[in-house]
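RECORD TYPE: inverse folding
INPUT: structure tokens
STRUCTURE:
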């Protein structure tokens, strides 16, 4: 038996990923033949076993471009004296090429040296070529095809983010159905995202683990350049993630070491004096393919559309993968990020923004804070790992863990009311010094087996969250300000400890047990059933006012079920029911602690994905209810009851497709939101039966790009999009409306290698959002009857180099 080289054994774990007949993008430098074959295995996922005696002292040429596995092997073996022959059992056999006089003789086969073709399959948490992802781990925590998932889910790929010039998570979700991604206007404190009419608040998930911030000044903002993809799951999702909002969740998937070398640097210059330098490098650390790394970094200096507010950032994210065998993989993920903003909160009077004023509109660049005083500085770092070990083909263990520390230092001077002259505002100041520590760990076993027509994927797991927060608050008064002709620095701002809660510590603990079974029946039906039990503890310690301290324990049981039918023509109708829960701090008049809020959703949908295509069409109708909402106790107005309910019903349609030179994204959402139960009212106007604030009935988006070719301008891609946000009420009493608006985006990309070989690897891009500089009000109902302007036009030029 010939000796089998160690590098190729490491590559075998990828055996099920790529077919030998599909083109794969490859980048293999010229090197010894055995190393080149090993690199091909890693980049294509192909199992390649060969004798070192055949490859000894042989060198392979460089290989870069799109090739099938067979084409790539033919290129690498060219001139080596070796060739491939088809074997009777399928796959290929590597043999010595016969001398010319024996060219018609039967080749001598070497059975132990073979290349076996497998079925193509993208990584569920890895890179996707183009806009159309086909798999995800977010909905089920297992590697599941989107078309087999019985809950609505969308994926924004790295290629889509690059094409659209995305600068934030909110940017990335602009064209996704059912989402309001920038409803809060320019606000650096968090990615303010709503799904199916419900805000996610400060909840966010990264690599399947929860990021949580306790207060409105300390939201987690993750750098979009460090993300490989963004998965958006619609509807309640407590079955696999524990406590959360009923609308759904956003899972941010970090970049991690790749299976082929990646080298990229980029420069961005843009509006508001934006300057950004970034880099992304991934490669192998050894010849055996056991260790690989990735380093992502970014430095940014920028002003913003608001005077005296900056957008400076430093971000670095090293990661390391250890793959000692086919069955075991450990990836270490770390990152550090510092955001430095001039101020974290801006709202202007409703008179002068939404409502006309005798003095005209308030400038969208007007700063209502105090220059040199207001600030928003946030530092965050995290370290964690993702571990996977397959005991055999039936049983796999996974554990994901992350620790994150975040420190926020903020001072905001803000609107508290408009004076009768309709141009002068009263202001107050608030300071927040906050530290947050999060430790989250998720461990589960996955079992896979088949009996008869039934194929099971069983998941049993336990996850735990430990979240700690310490916040010091200060408060003070500030001078009045004329918002039309502001004069700053009239009086100094004196911040003193807040009167009721200057020093507060908060803790959250959660432990959850979950069990889920996905059963494929006769390869045409997919049934999912999951159950979960959670135990939570929440504690607040108020050092200034111990009477305001509280401690609360809750438990909740949630479940979900779903069924998908897989038709032979690519259609996949489905139905599902899901639940969520969210603990609520506080007590009623009788001293009884509040029960957790609950979410319940019924959904019917259909997907269409023709075989071997880059198309995914989906539509869904849903009935989603948020229950146990706190409302006023009419008998004891200083207390609350839990008899409120908010419901949204709606239709969502989303399409992503790529063919020839075209790429298209389209979405439409229709919602019927309603406050179905409430004791609350405003000036005698009851909320019950009204629309919840800031939820539009209609939203739509369309993005298209076209690759010019032939005699046009080879190497150029022209794209653009339309985004429509319908009118919505500005408060729960529905006493005023925010008008609808339509925004236009534009993108142009050009492959500079068309100019000559000296420009190989260079690409230029120009992106413009809100191209026609539409002025619109994004949101209202803030302190002092305040409203927020939306994002103005932003133009950026990008220059990238890849090698």
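DESIGNED SEQUENCE:
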């Amino acid at each position: 038996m010939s000796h089998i080289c160690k590098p190729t054994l490491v590559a075998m774990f990828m055996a099920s990923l790529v077919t030998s007949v599909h083109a794969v993008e490859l980048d293999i430098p010229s090197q010894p033949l055995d190393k080149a074959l090993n690199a091909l295995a890693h980049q294509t996922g192909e199992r390649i076993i060969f004798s070192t005696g055949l490859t000894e002292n042989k060198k392979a040429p460089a290989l870069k471009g799109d090739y099938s596995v067979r084409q790539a092997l033919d290129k690498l073996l060219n001139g080596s004296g070796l060739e491939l022959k088809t074997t009777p059992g399928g796959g290929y056999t590597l043999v010595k090429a016969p001398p010319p006089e024996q060219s018609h003789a039967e080749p001598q086969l070497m059975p132990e040296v073979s290349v076996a073709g497998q079925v193509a399959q993208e990584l569920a948490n890895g890179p996707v070529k183009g806009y159309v992802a086909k798999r995800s781990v977010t909905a089920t925590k297992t590697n599941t095809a989107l078309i087999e998932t019985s809950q609505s889910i969308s994926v924004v790929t790295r290629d889509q983010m690059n094409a659209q010039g995305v600068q934030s998570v909110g940017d990335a979700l602009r064209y996704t159905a059912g989402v309001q991604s920038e409803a809060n206007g320019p606000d650096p404190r968090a990615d303010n995202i709503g799904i199916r009419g419900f805000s996610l608040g400060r909840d966010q998930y990264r690599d399947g683990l929860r990021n949580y911030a306790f207060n409105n000044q300390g939201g987690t903002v993750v750098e979009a350049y460090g993300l490989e993809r963004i998965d958006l799951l619609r509807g309640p999702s407590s079955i696999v993630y524990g406590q959360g909002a009923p609308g759904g969740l956003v899972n941010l998937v970090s970049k991690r070491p790749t299976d082929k070398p990646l080298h990229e640097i980029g420069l961005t210059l843009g509006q508001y004096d934006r300057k950004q330098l970034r880099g992304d490098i991934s490669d192998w650390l050894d010849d055996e393919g056991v260790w690989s790394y990735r380093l992502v970094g970014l430095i940014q200096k920028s002003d913003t559309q608001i005077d005296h507010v900056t957008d400076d950032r430093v971000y670095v994210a090293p990661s390391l993968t250890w793959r000692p065998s086919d069955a075991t993989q450990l990836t270490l993920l770390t990152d550090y990020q510092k955001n430095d903003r001039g101020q974290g909160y801006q709202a202007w009077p409703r008179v002068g923004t939404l409502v006309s004023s005798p003095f005209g509109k308030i400038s969208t660049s007007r700063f209502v804070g105090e220059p040199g005083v207001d600030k928003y500085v946030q530092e965050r770092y995290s370290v964690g790992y993702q571990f996977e070990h397959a005991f055999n083909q039936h049983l796999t263990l996974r554990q994901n863990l992350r620790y994150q520390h975040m420190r926020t230092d903020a001072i905001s001077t803000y609107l508290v009311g408009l004076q009768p002259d309709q141009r002068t505002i009263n202001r107050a100041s608030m300071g927040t010094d906050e530290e947050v520590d999060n430790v989250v760990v998720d461990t589960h076993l996955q079992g896979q087996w088949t009996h008869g027509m039934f194929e099971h994927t069983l998941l049993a797991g336990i996850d735990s969250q430990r979240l700690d927060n310490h916040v010091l608050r200060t408060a003070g008064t500030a001078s009045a300000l004329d918002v039309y002709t502001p004069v700053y620095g009239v009086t100094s701002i004196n911040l003193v400890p807040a009167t009721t809660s200057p020093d507060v510590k908060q803790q959250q603990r959660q432990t959850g047990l979950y069990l889920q079974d996905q059963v494929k029946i006769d390869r045409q039906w997919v049934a999912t059933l999951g159950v979960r039990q959670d135990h939570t503890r929440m504690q607040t310690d108020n050092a200034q006012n111990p009477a305001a301290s509280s401690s609360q324990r809750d438990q909740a049981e949630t479940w979900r079920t779903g069924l998908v039918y897989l038709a032979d023509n690519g259609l996949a109708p489905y139905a599902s029911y899901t639940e969520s829960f969210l603990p609520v701090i506080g007590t009623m008049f009788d001293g009884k602690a509040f029960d957790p809020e609950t979410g319940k959703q019924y959904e019917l949908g259909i997907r269409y994905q023709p075989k071997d295509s880059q198309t995914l069409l989906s539509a869904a109708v849903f009935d989603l209810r948020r229950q146990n909402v706190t409302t006023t106790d009419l008998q004891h107005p200083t207390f609350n009851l839990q008899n409120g309910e908010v419901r949204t019903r709606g239709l969502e349609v989303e399409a992503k497709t790529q063919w020839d030179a075209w790429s298209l994204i389209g979405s439409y959402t229709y919602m019927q939101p309603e406050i179905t139960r409430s004791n609350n009212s405003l000036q005698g106007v009851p909320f019950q039966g009204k629309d919840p604030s800031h939820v539009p009935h209609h939203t739509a988006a369309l993005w298209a790009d076209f690759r010019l070719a032939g005699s046009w301008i080879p190497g150029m891609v022209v794209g653009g999009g339309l985004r429509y946000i319908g009118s919505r009420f500005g408060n729960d009493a529905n006493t005023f409306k925010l008008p609808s608006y339509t925004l236009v985006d534009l993108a142009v990309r050009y492959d500079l290698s068309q100019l000559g070989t000296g420009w190989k690897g260079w690409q230029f891009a120009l992106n413009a959002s809100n191209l026609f500089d539409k002025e619109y009000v994004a949101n209202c109902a803030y302190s002092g009857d305040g409203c927020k302007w939306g994002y103005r036009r932003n133009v950026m030029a990008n220059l990238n180099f890849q090698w």
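NOTES: Confidence is low (pLDDT under 50) at residues 1-21, 101-120.
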